[in-house]
Design brief:
Blueprint (H helix, E strand, L loop, with lengths): L6 H14 L18 E5 L1 H13 L5 E5 L6 H12 L6 E4 L4 H6 L15 H4 L11 E2 L2 E2 L2 E4 L3 E6 H7 L7 H14 L6 E2 L2 H12 L5 E2 L4 E3 L5 H15 L3 E2 L6 H8 L5 E5 L2 H6 L10 E4 L18 E5 L7 H13 L1 H5 L8 H11 L10 H8 L12 H18 L3 H18 L3 E2 L1
Parallel strand pairs: 1-2, 1-3, 8-11, 10-15
Antiparallel strand pairs: 3-14, 4-5, 6-14, 7-12, 7-13, 9-10
Helix pairs in contact: 7-9, 8-16, 16-17
C-alpha cells in the first residue's frame, strides 16, 4: 500500500533490503549507465513480490530486484549519487511519493524518461481520467501510476441514523450538519484540516491553485482565487466550533475519537476505509460508509482531491534496456490480475473494476463503497500537479491555515501567509510562479 510512509513500512523495507544484498540499499552498482544486459529495478516492499514474479516469468531477461524504503527523498538522494558517480542508476524505480517525478524529470537530475513513444496510446488512455496528471509536464508523460487515492466523504452510518442526520451532498449541507453535530453532540468531528489531508482533500477538491504545474519550471499559485476562499468560508465556523480539527488523522489522539464514537464524517482518501477506520480508529464492522465529496456551489458534480498513491519511472540512462524497462513498468501498472490483488485503488481502470469485485463483498462496510470510489476516481480535480516543493506545501499549510484553524483565527486571512510561503518554496525549487 502507499500512504506516504510509516515507520513500520520503513523498517520492514530496510530489513528486506538488507536480506537481499549487502549492496542493495547502497549505490545499486551495475544497472543503467553501462553495457550490462541486467535490468536493475528498485521497488518498495509491497511491490517486491510482483517485480520478482515478472522476473520469474521472463527468464530470458536478467532482472535484479532491489527493495528500497518508501521514505520521502530517498530516491532523489540515491539518483543524485548515481549522477555524480556516473553509475548505478536503476532502470526502473517505484516512487511512494509521485511528486518526486517532478524532481527526477527536471534539471539537475534529468533522470526520468518520457514514456509517450514507448507506451501505446491506448494503454495510456486506460488509466483513470487525470491519474497521469502528476506524471505529465510539457505534454510528456514521465511516469505511470500504480495506484491513486481519490478523496471521498467517509461517514459513520450508524451515528448518522442514531442522530437523525442526512449525509450531505453539498458543502453548505456539510457545514450545516457539522455545526448541528457540534452543538448536539459535543466533541463530534466531521473533518480534519491537518497537513496534506486538509490541503489535498478540501483545497484539492475545490481546485485551489497551490500546485498547478504549467511545466517543469512554471507553476501557478493563487490562494486569493475563489476556489481557495470558498474553502475558508465553509470551514471557518466548523473550526471555531471544533467540528473540524487540525489534529492529524494518523496521531493517537485522533484514533481515540474513533474509539469514542466521535467521528461522524471524515473527508479522506480511498485507503482510509481499510487502513485507518478499521485498524487505527477501530470503528466496528458494518458502520462505515462512503459518499462522494460534497458538490461546490455552482458546479454540476462532485470533484475529488487526492492524498497518496505511487508511480513507476523509467531511467533515461537505460539505453538498450529501455524497452525491457518500459515493458516491466507497463505490466506492473496495467496487468489486471496483478493489480486486482493490490491493497489500494488501481490507477488502471480495467484493473480497478476487477479490484472492486472483491471489495464489494467486504463485510466491514455498511454499504458497498466501490461505486463511490469508482466515481471519485473518474472525477479527480485537475490542477493537482507533482511539485518539487511537496514537503513545504504540507508544512506551510500546517503553519498558516492549520494553525489558524487550531487558534480560532480567520482562515481567509491565513491564505495570504500560505501564498507567500508557497511562492518562496516554489522559487527555491527553481519554479517561475504565475
Amino acid at each position: 500500500m502507499n500512504r506516504w510512509g510509516t515507520g513500520a513500512r520503513t523498517r520492514a523495507a530496510l530489513s528486506v533490503c538488507g536480506a537481499l544484498l549487502l549492496t542493495a540499499c547502497g549505490s545499486g552498482s551495475g544497472g543503467s549507465g553501462g553495457d550490462s544486459d541486467e535490468l536493475l529495478v528498485w521497488v518498495d516492499n509491497t511491490r517486491t513480490a510482483a517485480a520478482k514474479e515478472y522476473a520469474k516469468e521472463h527468464p530470458d531477461q536478467k532482472i535484479r530486484v532491489v527493495t528500497i524504503p518508501p521514505d520521502a527523498g530517498y530516491v532523489p538522494t540515491k539518483i543524485s549519487l548515481a549522477n555524480r558517480t556516473k553509475r548505478g542508476w536503476p532502470d526502473v524505480v517505484f516512487l511512494a511519493n509521485p511528486s518526486e517525478t517532478a524532481t527526477l524529470a527536471a534539471d539537475p537530475f534529468d533522470y526520468a524518461a518520457p514514456l509517450d513513444a514507448a507506451v501505446p496510446k491506448e494503454t495510456l488512455a486506460g488509466f483513470a481520467p487525470g491519474a497521469l496528471d502528476t506524471c505529465t509536464f510539457d505534454g510528456k508523460t514521465y511516469c505511470l501510476r500504480n495506484d491513486i487515492a481519490p478523496g471521498i466523504l467517509w461517514y459513520d452510518a450508524e451515528l448518522m441514523k442514531k442522530y437523525g442526520y442526512e449525509v450531505p451532498t453539498t458543502w453548505e449541507e456539510y457545514r450545516k450538519v457539522g455545526l448541528k453535530a457540534a452543538a448536539e453532540h459535543p466533541g463530534t468531528i466531521v473533518g480534519s484540516v491537518a497537513g496534506k489531508y486538509g490541503a489535498g482533500l478540501y483545497f484539492g477538491s475545490s481546485g485551489c491553485p497551490t500546485r498547478d504545474t504549467l511545466s517543469l519550471t512554471k507553476v501557478r499559485i493563487d490562494t486569493a482565487d475563489d476556489t481557495c476562499t470558498r474553502v475558508a468560508d465553509v470551514l471557518q465556523p466548523l473550526t471555531e466550533k471544533k467540528a473540524v480539527t487540525n489534529v492529524v488523522p494518523t496521531e493517537p489522539s485522533f484514533a481515540k475519537l474513533g474509539a469514542d464514537d466521535k467521528i461522524l464524517m471524515l473527508p479522506g482518501p480511498a485507503w482510509f476505509g481499510d487502513f485507518m477506520f478499521k485498524p487505527s480508529f477501530k470503528v466496528p464492522d458494518g458502520r462505515i460508509a462512503a459518499a462522494q465529496m460534497p458538490v461546490w456551489k455552482g458546479e454540476p458534480k462532485s470533484a475529488a482531491g487526492q492524498v497518496g498513491g505511487g508511480a513507476f519511472v523509467v531511467s533515461k540512462h537505460a539505453g538498450k534496456r529501455a524497452k525491457a524497462a518500459t515493458d516491466l513498468v507497463t505490466w506492473l501498472t496495467t496487468d489486471v490480475p496483478l493489480q486486482a490483488k493490490q491493497p489500494t485503488y488501481p490507477a488502471f481502470t480495467a484493473a480497478a473494476t476487477e479490484w472492486g469485485k472483491a471489495k464489494a463483498k467486504d463485510t466491514y462496510y455498511a454499504t458497498n463503497p466501490v461505486p463511490v470510489l469508482t466515481e471519485a476516481a473518474a472525477n479527480l480535480r485537475p490542477g493537482f500537479g507533482a511539485v518539487r516543493y511537496e514537503a513545504e506545501w504540507q508544512s506551510s499549510f500546517n503553519d498558516t491555515f492549520g494553525a489558524a484553524a487550531g487558534d480560532g483565527k480567520s482562515l481567509k486571512d491565513s491564505l495570504g501567509s500560505w501564498q507567500e510561503r508557497l511562492k518562496q518554496a516554489a522559487k527555491t525549487s527553481n519554479y517561475t510562479v504565475e
